[in-house]
Amino acid sequence: MVCSACRDKLKGIGKCHVCRIPTGGYLRCHAMEDLVQSVHVPCPHAIHGCTARPVYYDMDMHRQMCPHMGYRCPGKACGFVGPLDALLDHFAGVHGWTHAKTTRGRNYQTCYLRLRYGFNFLLAEGTADRRYLFLLNVVRQPLDRAISVARIAPLHAAMDEHGASSSEDMKFTLRYSNSNDEAGEFISYYQTASFRVARTDPTNGLPSPDGRFQFEVLDSVLGDEEDDEIKVRVSIDPCLS
User: Fold this and answer.
1) Which residues 6+ apart lie within 8 Å of 207 measured at CB?
2) Distance between CA atoms of 168 and 189, rounded to whole angstroms?
3) In this structure, what are the phi and psi dihedrals at residue 15, rounded to the nearest 5 degrees?
């Protein structure tokens, strides 16, 4: 550890003035590095139960992966805010909403869902212990069932200068198929759609699904058992996350 004047004098020597080990031009100050590494700060999610105290320069990474990040309930006029696990309990206990989980494949995550009208939630396990919460909203229309998809972001999620999430779009694929044998005639139907899903902060309300549904299934192709729900296959590509 040297002052700036001595640093300039010793720069040409290229060796430590104490141990004579080559320094490469006094590019590092180990004493200050030790000092910086000793500065720990509380997690901003401590109010939700996080006890971690990461090194201050690792705070952004910890904050984005903290399991205690606060999520706001997307329910209309509902002010609940809490960590993800508490939010899922809140869904079931207060609103009667249920949620499903994906199963991890080799390069993607997939599952079958029975979607009821209204809000349906899907919890996806990502890399590095990250978890992603998706909202699938099913609306009954005169001739079909329309599905819109949004990803619920934690509060204070990292955003870019335009207010949009940075590098957080994910590829979401919905598939519907149906086949049956009626009066000796085999009938089959299949449709699929893939689209990007960005993060949505429900603080100011969810985006209106009107005119921007990502998936629509005609009533005429639905099975008799799908009067109150519709069975779809979901695939999530983590390569876009």
Assistant:
1) 148, 150, 200
2) 33
3) -130, 155
Domain spanning 94-240, CATH class: mainly beta
Question: How far apart, in whole angstroms, are the C-alpha atoms of residue 241 and residue 32?
Answer: 36
pLDDT digits (tens, 9 = 90+) for 63-119: 777 777 778 888 887 888 888 888 889 988 888 888 887 766 555 678 888 898 888
| Cβ contacts of 187 within 8 Å, gap of 6 or more | 179, 180, 181
Contact call for residues 91 and 134 (beta carbons, < 8 A) = no
Is residue 82 within 8 A of residue 72, CB to CB? The reply is no
Residues in the chain, overall count: 241
Q: Which amino acid makes up residue 32?
A: M
Residue 127 to residue 111: CA distance in whole angstroms: 17
Which of 191, 216, 206 minimizes the C-alpha distance to 140? Answer: 216
Residue boundaries of the structural domains of the chain: 1-38, 94-240
Spell out, as residue ranges, where the chain has pLDDT lower than 70.
Answer: 25-26, 103-108, 126-129, 155-168, 180-186, 203-212, 238-241
**Angle CA(169)–CA(200)–CA(53) in degrees, nearest 5?**
85
pLDDT of residue 182: 61
- In b/e form, how buried is each residue of 142-169, taking b as 16+ CB within 10 angstroms? eebbbbbbbbbbbeebeeeeeeebeebb
